[in-house]
Amino acid sequence: MKIISNAKIFSFSILLLLPSTSYSLYEKPKNHIKTTTFVSKSFEMGLGSIAAKTFEDIKFPKGHIGIKSFDAELVNQEGNSIPSYETYLYHWFAIKYHKNITMSLNPKLHRPEDAFFKRNEGTCNGGILSHYWGFRVESRGTSSNILDPFAIEQGNPTKIKKGYEEKWLFNIMVIDTRGAQDKKCCIECRCDHMNLPKDFYNVTRDIHNQPLTTNYKGGFQGSRRMVSFRYKISWVDWNKHQVPVKVYILDSTNRIRSNGSKIIHDCQVEYTIPENGDGDSPHVQKANIPIEKGGYLIYGTAHMHSGIVNVTLYGQDGRTLCTSTPKYGRGNEAGNEKGYLIGMFVCYPQPGSIKIHDGEILALESRYKNEFCSGAMRHFYIYLAEELP
Ligand SMILES: *[C@@H]1O[C@H](CO)[C@@H](O)[C@H](O)[C@H]1NC(C)=O
Ligand SMILES: *[C@@H]1O[C@H](CO)[C@@H](O)[C@H](O)[C@H]1NC(C)=O
Ligand SMILES: *[C@@H]1O[C@H](CO)[C@@H](O)[C@H](O)[C@H]1NC(C)=O
Ligand SMILES: *[C@@H]1O[C@H](CO)[C@@H](O)[C@H](O)[C@H]1NC(C)=O
């Protein structure tokens, strides 16, 4: 998360160019949805290794468009999906940034204003949870589709300053757990990869108690392979028939306070479930999050880790806006790995049926199994439309 929290974010007033003509359902035009599958540069993974990668200027549909879906997963060199019990997609984030087109090639001459992130409309502080899309491996089983005529508008030329261009980057982290004895522990709770001591892999014998060779660089000895990040985007060209939705990512670890004149959102991103929980009842974490500008709820889902029981977003009056529940795998194949969190339930309320008011304080309540876990996440993704067709 380092790269994200250190990011310099400039806020601009958002000019939402809403369609001026209302359009009737009876004249519904055919939406020409285009879909392209892209593949990142491949990178090598060995047993026990961790890769934390940032891919800048990724391939992304060009022009003024509305994104309808965004799916991603890990594949091997043959293009086959890799099961989680082999190489685990620990996180992926797609982050938008604007870049000075004629910026110097010399990094020493780069000014902060030459490249900066353009965050979603979420409430978290600074660059925290600023991505538009991004989960873990459960992306495979979580719908990212946005129903017609709604879409996430991107590449609007009136929102890109002269001399700049809009680009996207991926930040991903992948853990190769082949050969690991406790795969769940490795992926869920002990991956403090940012602060590993120099002698973290301070071992002289492998898991079969055989001495390691002198060129040993960490991880377990074993086969290495090339892995790529494959992503599929569907989009439409932007026109008056598309209705924009705003993307919010809420965090149930948000510690809201005020400095007297302004609400400060202090999202922790991660959370530790303490060791001595109180038995069977789930561990509950709540936050009351004010939403400055409301809208109609079009899409809702959560990002949580294995061990999630459920998570619910409530309105200020206690009405349920959306509950998301996990899907756990039962098989062996990629996307259905036994015991792994493989997907999250997505809410698609009838457009217009759920309205979040300006200034409404939403209550986010997440439940995990009451077991020690560090790095647990409790994020809720909502898409809001300010107007209906
Ligand atoms: C982009 O960077 C170049 C080189 O530093 C600078 O001359 C130019 O003014 C910058 N453009 C904008 C729009 O700031
Ligand atoms: C790593 O090995 C050295 C030499 O055997 C030892 O002094 C040191 O304590 C070890 N570190 C850890 C974290 O085990
Ligand atoms: C509160 O924060 C806002 C935004 O950062 C700032 O403009 C304002 O001066 C702050 N007020 C106080 C009393 O610190
Ligand atoms: C969430 O889980 C708790 C504990 O199992 C249960 O009591 C509650 O009914 C669930 N909430 C929803 C909305 O499913």
UniProtKB/TrEMBL annotation:
The protein's name: Stress up-regulated Nod 19 protein
Highest taxon in the source lineage: Eukaryota
InterPro entries noted in UniProt: Stress_up-reg_Nod19 (IPR011692)
UniProt keyword terms in alphabetical order: Signal
Signal sequence extent: 1-24
